[in-house]
Each structure stands twice: as structure tokens, then as C-alpha cells.
Design a protein that fits this description.
The chain is of the alpha+beta class. It has three domains: 1-92, no CATH class; 98-176, Roll (Ubiquitin-like (UB roll)), CATH 3.10.20.90; 181-350, Lipoxygenase-1 (Sandwich), CATH 2.60.60.30. Helices cover 14% and strands 29% of the residues. The chain has helices at 32-43, 62-73, 81-86, 127-138, 342-350, and strands at residues 106-111, 116-120, 145-149, 152-153, 170-180, 189-196, 205-213, 216-221, 234-236, 240-242, 247-254, 265-272, 282-290, 311-319, 325-334. Helix 1 (32-43) packs across helix 2. The radius of gyration is 21 Å and the shape is globular. It starts with 31 loop residues before the first helix and ends in a 5-residue tail after the last helix. InterPro entries: Stress/Tellurium_Resist, TerD, Ubiquitin-like_dom, Ubiquitin-like_domsf. It comes from Ambispora gerdemannii. Pfam families: TerD, ubiquitin. This is 10720_t:CDS:1.
Length: 355
């Protein structure tokens, strides 16, 4: 996608993960770099209260400004100007069979959370070598790696050149946390969440499950929509509050083998209700497991990584084939909460998490 400001072709995750403001009726056509530059430009002669979206002139509040600035500060995809210029070349990633591809330069491994790993192309001539470097750099076991380029999965026995991967190519890494086979018969997938009130004030750390069929949102299970007649095989506990100990909890259950055949993805999300960030809650804890084997944790995520965010898309349970499901690590930060899911839905759609 080309940024409307700098006119450079960028990856989707180099654009803001949500609309610039909750009042905007559009996604940003400015990349994150340019949008933040516009915010900083407006700040110089103006006060924080007068900052506006450069595309629709909607007022941008301080929380929205800080979210964009923090997202930019923490972005792992920042590229040098030279690489930005390379990405403008429309033939740069077009591979013609029979071409001899140079093995110099760099490639980028992009995670679903937007982070990017830069690798020397000469050191990873094969898919297996690439997986080994990912293991060394990120600590992700080879068996848990799924690599995609141009929507094609890379086979470990092939060379990168077989797929037309060259300097400045971007390979997507999907981290498979757990595979659930039909033989394992996970009758009931359980998402357990509990939290302590922030500073002793009652507040809610919401656990939500968004149910998708491909790119289509089918249903949302949360504290207020805890069961649906069309989905008797899923349930949300609603708010369970322990006033004596100033703690709350949510539980979501899903019987995978009884879900309708068109259900392809279950996204598990945490979001702060009144607090502006997740990090203000005391000792939040979560577990995703099979009800019959609660000792096996199916999703590992360090909540501290989302401390400065209002919401985080933690993981996705996705149907693959023959009754099998996989738990995929996401860790995508977002604005939005149970009062307004639109920014979270935008983050799912704009980040191409639907796979």
C-alpha cells in the first residue's frame, strides 16, 4: 500500500493499526511515520487539545495521540531511507523463473505483532537456514515456525531463491504455539482470566473472544454477550467479582469439535474497561488450556508486553484441516475495548492476521 504523504509503498503493518481517531470514518492512508510527523508538526504551534486528523480534521485527543506516538517509538519495522526507496521499485519483488537472484542484501522476517527481524541474505540461502536463524534470534523452535512469502508456505528443503526471495523481501513468520489434533479430542477449550483492581478501585480487565469465518466476524463473546443460541457450544462467564479480595475473573469455554463448520478463527483479546492501559491492573493472570488437561498451557504471552496498551490480541485458535486446530501467537497491541471493539477489529483486518 502506498502512503498518501510520502508516496512510498509500505507493508500493511507500517500503517497505524487502527483509525487515527475514534471519530474518523476512514483508515489512515498515511503511514505511521508520516502520521506521527504530522502530529509533531501540529504540536509545535498548537496545544495538545487542538491536534486534528490531517485527513478528515477530526479532533485527536491526548490518549489517541499518545497511542500513535508510542506505537511509532516501539515499532520494530523502521527502515532506513535507502530501503524505503528500494520498496518504491515496482519490479523489485517480481521474480521471473530462470532469473539468477543475488544473495547479497537483507531480508525481513515479520511477526504478526508487527515486529520485524532483519537478516543478512547471504547467511540464509535456504529455508532451513532461515528457520535456524529465527530460532537463534527469537528463540522460536523450528517445529513452531510457519513461514509465508506471497501467501505461499516455505518448505524447509528449498532455497529462498526458489520462491523469488531477494534483497528487501519480507517473509511472514507465524508462530504455532500448539497443534490440536482430532485424536486429542479437545472437548472444551478454556480461557481463564483473573485480575486485581487497579489501585483498589473496581475496574474490569475484559476477556473477549471474537469468532470469525475467514475475514467475516460472526460473533463476539464477552461479559455482556455471554451466550448465543446459534453457538450453544461457546460461553462466556460474565463478570465474576471477588469484592473481599478486590479481584475479578472471566472464563470463556469453547467446544472445538462442536463448532459450526464455517468457524475458522477464534481470537482471544484482553482490554481495559476504564483504565487507559492494561498495565494498571494488579497481577493479571490468564490461561488457555484444555479443560481435561489444565496443566498444559496452550498460549504463552507476557502481559507486561502490553502494559502500555489499552488492548492486546493475544492469540488465535485457527482451524486447519481434518479436525485439526492450531494456536497461533499474535501479541498485537491495539486501542479499543468492550465499549468500542472497532479499533480491535481494524487491527485484526489491517494487520492481515486473518490467515
Amino acid at each position: 500500500m502506498k502512503c498518501s504523504a510520502c508516496q512510498i509503498n509500505k507493508l500493511t503493518n507500517e500503517f497505524p493499526p487502527t483509525k487515527p481517531t475514534d471519530k474518523c470514518e476512514h483508515v489512515s492512508t498515511l503511514c505511521l511515520r508520516c502520521l506521527v510527523a504530522e502530529i509533531e508538526k501540529q504540536k509545535k504551534p498548537s496545544s495538545i487539545e487542538s491536534i486534528r486528523c490531517v485527513e478528515c480534521n477530526s479532533p485527536m485527543n491526548e490518549t489517541e495521540q499518545e497511542f500513535l506516538l508510542t506505537t511509532w517509538r516501539n515499532a520494530a519495522f523502521k527502515l532506513d531511507n535507502e530501503l524505503d526507496l528500494l520498496s518504491q521499485n515496482p519490479t523489485h519483488n517480481n521474480y521471473i523463473e530462470g532469473d539468477t537472484l543475488p544473495n547479497n542484501g537483507h531480508i525481513y522476517v515479520v511477526l504478526l505483532n508487527g515486529h520485524k527481524l532483519k537478516l543478512d541474505l547471504a547467511k540464509v540461502p535456504t529455508v532451513y537456514a532461515l528457520k535456524m536463524h529465527i530460532k537463534m534470534e527469537l528463540g522460536v523452535q523450528i517445529s513452531k515456525q510457519k513461514l509465508l512469502f506471497n501467501r505461499q508456505e516455505l518448505n524447509a528443503t528449498n532455497k529462498l531463491s526458489n520462491y523469488g526471495i531477494r534483497d528487501n523481501s519480507h517473509v511472514q513468520l507465524i508462530v504455532i504455539l500448539y497443534s490440536i489434533s482430532e485424536a486429542e479430542a479437545v472437548r472444551s477449550l478454556v480461557f481463564d482470566l483473573n485480575w486485581g483492581f487497579p489501585s483498589g478501585v473496581q475496574d474490569y480487565l475484559d476477556g473477549t473472544c471474537m469468532v470469525y469465518s475467514g475475514a467475516e466476524l460472526l460473533m463476539i463473546f464477552d461479559y455482556s454477550s455471554n451466550n448465543h443460541p446459534n453457538f450453544p457450544n461457546m460461553r462466556h462467564s460474565g463478570d465474576v467479582i471477588d469484592y473481599a479480595n478486590s479481584r475479578g475473573s472471566h472464563q470463556i469455554t469453547a467446544k472445538l469439535d462442536e463448532l459450526p463448520g464455517n468457524v475458522t478463527h477464534l481470537y482471544f483479546i484482553l482490554s481495559a474497561w476504564n483504565c487507559d492501559t492494561i498495565g494498571k491492573f494488579n497481577t493479571p493472570m490468564f490461561k488457555l488450556c484444555d479443560e481435561s488437561r489444565p496443566d498444559i498451557q496452550l498460549c504463552h504471552y507476557t502481559l507486561q508486553d502490553a502494559a502500555n496498551s489499552q488492548a492486546v490480541i493475544m492469540c488465535c485458535v485457527t482451524r486447519i484441516e481434518n479436525g485439526m486446530w492450531q494456536v497461533i501467537q499474535v501479541g498485537r497491541l491495539s486501542r479499543g475495548n468492550a465499549k468500542n471493539y472497532k479499533p480491535i477489529q481494524d487491527a485484526i483486518r489491517n494487520s492481515r492476521i486473518i490467515i
